[in-house]
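Researcher: We are triaging several targets before committing to wet-lab work. For this one, the compound of interest is adenosine-5'-triphosphate. I'm pasting the protein sequence and the ligand SMILES. What I need is the predicted three-dimensional arrangement of the protein with the ligand bound, expressed as structure tokens, so it can go straight into our comparison scripts without reformatting.
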Amino acid sequence: MSGATTQASLAGMSSLPWHQRPGGWAIQAEGLVKRYSGRAVLRGLNLHVPRGGVHGLLGPNGSGKTTSIRILLGLVRADGGEANILGEPVPRNLPRVIGRVGAIVESPRFSPRMSGRNNLVVLAESIGAPPRRVSEVLLEVGLDGDAERHFTTYSLGMKQRLAIAATLLKQPEVLIFDEPTNGLDPVGIHDIRTTMRGLADSGRTVLVSSHILSEIEQIADSVSIVADGRVVAEGGIDEFLLESAPHVRIRLDRALEATDLLRSDGWRVEADESGLRVSSRDGRIPDAAGIAETLGRVGLWPRELVTEKRSLEQVFLHLTSGADLSATQGRRGRMR
Ligand SMILES: Nc1ncnc2c1ncn2[C@@H]1O[C@H](COP(=O)(O)OP(=O)(O)OP(=O)(O)O)[C@@H](O)[C@H]1O
């Protein structure tokens, strides 16, 4: 994957392609299959989460995100496929690795009558975490100023941050959050996002699922797009953003010649029923005038040549619509 963008570096990403970053995968799944009453809800799902950074597991409702996460955590048994976390096969070796993993899959239970801090103190005692961790994790999720308030007075966003704090008590390297911003208001969503980004910036791996692209887009380093029980695309957020960059749509008679010419000029060219789609391979944005000039020099005159732009939402819908599943399935590191 190429073309680290400003956005990607803002998210703390190195300029290395996401799948070449040192350390290998924090989480890996190959060919996961799950059936409920004979109905397949995971159909050979492959997932690759790089070590360090925020990885978004993105897909529409019912696409299989929670099921995948539950399999990784040993809460549901897969009917096929393999998975590992930090190199340990799961669920077989889960006891060996679970101490290095923190997860929120369902809303954790806290005592409404106790303060945020006391809830964590009780929890720390029960899992053998040192008492000093309580203040540290409260600080890390930005609840230090509200630690003495009763849990019942917390907003939904604060309750969720307390849940994240609870997962941090044992100092996990990998954090798995299933739709952590569900039901939160914009302020709560912002706070959770900031918290997740901070956790990744401190060297942890955060896998976060969501069906809302915009929630992931701003903080993720890489994403896996799930549709109908499969990962249909995986890659760095930079490539994903590149997909939404402007491209040039061309209709002309000698399409094969034009394709060769533009590819040799460094452009990505895809053909479909509505003509050629010329897009960037390296961050260079194609401009209609420049493309027309390149073609005109060898006597290729387009009937139509327009600049188009897909929103990130459109890219997401395109990838999850099912239209491209056969073309995209299993193509790690490509977004198309
Ligand atoms: N225990 C279960 N019994 C039967 N069907 C289930 C069970 N759990 C999940 N499913 C079905 O499996 C499919 C995938 O569900 P899953 O919760 O994994 O999707 P999701 O992508 O997390 O969706 P959402 O964004 O709505 O949480 C859905 O059709 C769901 O109804």
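Researcher: Any quick observations?
Model: The chain is about 35% helix and 25% strand.
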